[in-house]
Amino acid sequence: MNCDVIGRMNVRRGFIRSMILLLICLLFVPIIFAASAEYFVYIGTYTRSRGKGIYTFRFQPATGKLTPLSLAAETSSPAFLAVHPNQQFLYAANEHEGEDLPGKNNTVSAYSIDPKTGSLRFLNKVSAEGEGPAHIVVDKLGKDLLVLNYRSGSVALLPILSSGKLGKASSFYQHQGSGPNKERQAGPHAHGGVFSPDNRYALVAEHGIDEVMSYRFDAIKRSLTPNDPPFFKATPGAAPRHLVFHPDGKIVYVLNELGSTVTVLAYSAAGGAMNRLQEITTLPAGFNGTNSTAQLQVDREGKFLYVSNRGNDSIAVFAISADQGTLTLVEHVPTHGKTPRDFALDPTGAFLFAANQNSDNIVLFKVAPTGRLTPTGQIVEQAPEPTCIVFVPAQ
Predict the structure, then answer these.
(1) CA-to-CA dists, residue 264 to 17, 66, 257, 341, angstroms
(2) For the chain, which terminal residue's Cβ has fewer other Cβ atoms within 10 angstroms, N or C?
(3) pLDDT value of residue 133
(4) pLDDT attached to residue 96
(5) Other CB atoms within 10 Å distance of the CB of residue 326
(6) What proportion of the chain, given as a percentage, has pLDDT over 90?
(7) Among 195, 103, 109, 194, which residue's Cα sits nearest to residue 151?
(8) What letters, b where the CB count within 10 A reaches 16 and e where it falls short, cover 205-216?
(9) Is residue 280 within 8 Å of residue 261, measured between CB atoms?
(10) Number of domains into which the chain is organized
(11) Domain housing 380
(12) Residue 129, number of CB atoms within 10 A of its CB
């Protein structure tokens, strides 16, 4: 087969893949971004002490009011939640289930969402194929769910069935290695993951070995394969925790937990390669206490990046350069609680919800056009040990 024929075949495959993604966008985007008067807010919690599972709230963007509804699902430490692109299913990583039983795999649970009441109906639960699933993410087509197992340092790909239920893992990789921090990096610790905008790659923040790992993702075969190059090497001891794409798909922001920094990477969609552009601290000048970062998010217009600091207990706000994607500090805002493990911008982009795990409260902030945050005065305390926040439009 000559090069011209191979080239035409590659172009045809790329065209077909683009058309599939376009079709998915046409199907799902109106559902996700249609104007909604109200949203259901699901809060995942730790259940080792005070939390009981997944809590449901109702949010009205017009007034900024967050109203508690119920304990939607009593389940073991649903520390991270993910919503299907069609907004009909919710998935929960049960991070601490079975940890007292040596060799017992932790699990991922699937639920269907009632669009009128926000109630959850349990569908099934499957093995995460590892210990301590810290993060889960659904691919762009809604066909597969990527699981990042922190304690065992592994990744697994779980098929999503048409019913919303999860199947047994179709791909699995065990990471190897360690980092310079002997207490926190004695072995691999897969933490955060994200699918590339074109759905061809899955990137994984490897906390234990200071790498951003790159996997080729085949949505048809439902498989992961190490990319070439297979990883970006982070600053030693930085401990990558989470990562997020800029809306333009050309920049990846990596949040380093132990380094309290954000690494800005230029991303090549052609081959999935990453190159460092910048590394910037998340802490205010003069801070000398103990800190670890937790979460990051880019606003929907790609103008601002938000990061949570645990220890400094703040949200760091950065302006994003329109030309290069690099960051400039705007402000640090106290979260009015302890240990902001998670936060989320609401679908309208007008509010930020900060989940303070160790003070059992969720604090709402108003987001200004400048990216700055102002507390609304509303503090919710009906979801103890909050760890994750997701939104679903209410009907």
Answers:
(1) 28, 34, 15, 21
(2) N
(3) 96
(4) 81
(5) 14
(6) 87
(7) 103
(8) bbbbbbbbbbbb
(9) yes
(10) 2
(11) 40-68+292-395
(12) 24
